[in-house]
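subagent[fold] <- orchestrator: predict structure for attached chain, return tokens only, no commentary.
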Amino acid sequence: TAHPILVNLECTSCGLSSIDVSACDSLRYIHCNENNISSVDLSANLKLRWANVSSNNITSIDLSSNLLIERFACSQGNGKPALSTINIWPEFSKDDMVEWIVPSGVQYTYL
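subagent[fold] -> orchestrator:
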């Protein structure tokens, strides 16, 4: 089901193991930290500016379509696996971000 007017989504500590926001094309803010999510597809969320997916089971994420993103967090805790790979757009620079929290040693793939 499409949710064209959903702009903000807060689902922290809800016990989620999966999430599908592919039909939420107006989404600008997502906080789904402290769950058990292993992957999240944000490729259709072209208006996304802020994403916090920390403390989940996410080891790789594709942000190559999210050209407007300004804040991103994917720090891991509570024995969760660490993020190891981020797909990003060719002009990406961490210096252009308001907030960028990822584990040290993460690999960037420019798409």
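orchestrator: received. Logging for downstream: The first strand starts at residue 8 and ends at 10. The mean pLDDT is 93.
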